[in-house]
């Protein structure tokens, strides 16, 4: 069985690591013929390390993006895959409108964000990264949906796989420091709140505790974080907050940590190194992984939303409690490793994905259902101001008889009829009758 994997742009990020590692595992553990198609970036190095055959994609400036769709269609024609496995919503829209809708190629979507995206078609086989999101998707009428947990290579990410000493020396980490490590994209959405809150904790507790906060990553808020770090370091009279920039291999940072702070795949990899982990999120959320919290984190994901506490009290308490009681760290770290190995190991997740891929090949929805699904996504885009561009809305939404919000309705209808000929009236009638005319 041959799979063409359509990944997100290869910047340094957890979703990219998940996609690359699972693609390689499908080949190595289950014998699939795989090809990786994505816009180049720094993570091409990991693609090369995994010896995946790589096809570069044009960069997209919105979704769907015509140049990238043309490249995707060419890749499909040349590779003749049995399945197109698409990662995240932007790539899904390119694949749906450019390949699935017109070429009838089976598509599997993996959506690892922490919320449902209404813009996604409802009748494509889709995986979600938490049991809670899978259940929400089913309740919203999406089908078929499956659980695909974020994978962790528990052999590559494990205690004693790397020597932390060179990293500690390079960044001035001393014996006796309580080293907090975050590996994260420095992005204003989702990530920034917890990063700034952790720096605030170091500022508050750093006079009484030997805290050292190491931030591994790069992105739009790096300059702001560096300015705040300089202020805190000047107040404390020592380099308590250190930014390393992005590391393609962040394992030495995890190995050097006493406590890992993060969310999602980054937190999971810290757990794999047998480190105690404080999971952060939005609106003031933070909580350590413990025996008491593990079940909730498994169901809801390695993330959370708090009550908006502006005083940062929870994170101050979480970090202070662990830093003041280093005797607790080893037992918490051992439990972290057990949690990851039990639920998130790459081998187990790859086996689940193999089963899902084989089922997805035979789960192509009827053509008129696909048409209706495309109109529904376009309608959602109109209402919610999402990313579908003008030409996609024109060609899909107005063919169904939507309101005259664009001037080119007749042109869109003529194009639709020219594409589908005598079938067009039947398709439109069945699409209307399918119940997907209005976004739900």
Written description of the protein model:
This protein starts with a strand and ends in a 7-residue tail after the last helix. The chain is 47% helix and 13% strand. Helix 3 (66-79) packs across helix 4 (89-103) and helix 15 packs across helix 18 (424-433). It folds into three domains: 2-150 and 351-365, Glycogen Phosphorylase B (Rossmann fold); 165-344, Glycogen Phosphorylase B (Rossmann fold, 3-Layer(aba) Sandwich), CATH 3.40.50; 374-383 and 394-440, no CATH class. The model is unreliable at 393-413 and 434-440 (pLDDT under 50). The protein has a seven-stranded parallel beta sheet, sandwiched between helices. The protein contains 18 helices and 13 strands. With 440 residues, it is α/β, with parallel strands linked by helices.
Unreliable stretches, pLDDT < 50, 5 or more residues? Answer: 393-413, 434-440
CATH superfamily of the largest domain: Glycogen Phosphorylase B
Overall tally of structural domains: 3
CATH class of the largest domain: Alpha Beta
Shape: elongated
CATH fold description of the largest domain: Rossmann fold
Based on the structure given, which CATH architecture of the largest domain is correct?
Answer: 3-Layer(aba) Sandwich
The termini sit apart by: 35 Å
Helical/strand content category: alpha/beta
Tell me the β content: 5-15%
Average of the residue pLDDT scores: 89
Q: Give a count of the beta strands, DSSP E runs of length 2 or more.
A: 13
Helix content: 40-55%
Question: Biggest sheet: strands, sense, closure?
Answer: 7 strands, parallel
Strand order of the largest sheet: 3-2-1-4-5-6-7
**Radius of gyration, CA atoms, in whole angstroms:** 24 Å
SS field, number of helical segments? 18
